[in-house]
Fold:
Amino acid sequence: MEENMQFDKKSLRYVTGKTADFGELAKDCVAFANSHGGYLAIGIEDGDELPNPTQVIPDTLPEKVVKRINELTINVAIFPEIVMSENGGQYIKLHIYPSQTSIASTTKGLYLIRDHDSSRALRPDELGRLIADRPAYCWETKVSQKLHWRNSDISKLNKFISSIKQSDRVSAFVKEKTEEETLAYYQMINDDGFLTNLGVLWIGKPEQRARLLYSPIVQYIKYDAEENKVDKKVWDDYQMNPQELMMSIVGYIPDWRETYEISEGLWRKEIPAYDEKIVRELLCNAIVHRPYTTRGDIFIKLYPDKMVITNPGVLPIGVTVNNILQKTEKRNIHLAKIFYDLHMMEAEGSGYDMIYETLLTAGKGKPIVVEGEDYVEVTVYRKILNKETSRLCDYIENNFPRFSQKAYIALGIILQHKAIFAKDLSRELQIQDGGRLRSYVDILVNHHIVDTQGRGKGLKYSINPAFVSKTRMQFETTLKTIEPYRLKALIYEDLRYHPNSTMSEISKRLPDVEYIELEKMVRMMVKDGKIIPLGGRKYRRYTLAENSFLSESGRK
Structure:
């Protein structure tokens, strides 16, 4: 099993002998407690799946581990057990429970959180957010109204149980449970059979749901070109659970079923103005990931050129608008599980991947995510920026093995830019580590769909002209993919007509050429004596040298 948000492996050396390092172990326990809990497999080496087959854990060791961790941490609850693996070796499975009402720390005052497969210290601003957001993480399992589950809305209860039994995402083990056991499994009731907040939200009666803090209210507003309101509907009567609310919203708004037809020769394709998959995923995010301890309605604003969905609360800790494609953090984990099991949303970490892929392969722009002081806003534009993209992606779909979402996302961005440097592509994909870019583009390069030029910081990706020719598609010509010797000739021709020009003036006359490429070529021509720089660095101008080789070639 790979290390992740809720699982980590530790060598037995961390808790035995002179190499024991309970301080590092304590940090991991604090990080798990401040996240969603998890467990440590103490006795399994990094890179191994199982412990040494001859490994035996002394009976007194788990107690020693618990004692030392308790001495080094605050607000951390743990429970150890000795587990016998399938190869006969033993290890300690140390359960760390989420700290639901307080913030965990080490006794030295260090606050940490789990970030993917590692533990990291919280920044001061993140600590403040964690303190403010802590009540939202335990909202689902709290009992705020002493309502027995048998007093819930029977029709909603029966529908939920039926949907769970029919879902192919639910194991046979769960499907065999009784009604009460199923509700307990999905954290809808507590040990006494009383409905949790999640239970009231899903199977409660309208009056019960209305007493929740804060049951979702959705407002839909449509604007015309002058931003005058032309339609409005509010879902605020608490009659519906989240699933019914989703179905009602999607069914009510006809604009989401509008399409564009794009064509080239005999090829035709209908492109939705707003793909239903995207609409559903964004609505799910607004309902599932909002903090239910924060007052505020969900707003769906529809303009002639865009859709804007706003939900109350800020992004979960660790997630920002600049890493939302790469990082995942669920605020309401049990609600998210229900949504996933009922096929209402994508798996963890794949929602925004799907949104990016759907938009970019249709030739549209990326979603724009904005985080305000107490809200998150996502904007999706309906305009198609690049009509060739959809046909090219169809061609790839029909002539190549199924590519990953990552490959299609990278391809869509490259197509929109025509040519893009690796560092800029990494930024578009929100990748911090440049090495991870290869998982997006290697398959495109290997199938000769994408060309590369340069290396290192100068590495650039563009669509392979030979591939475009093979597809017989009419691609718009651009100077962004121009060969260096042609760019040199273009700069020479520009300065022949416009001598004594600044770099910005040359760039304005050659708008399709990347500024960095233009600057690089001009410097090379200066170094080769083809261009003469005039003036200081700030107001430097360029003119052709009298003995320019290009000039001689032009006269010939």
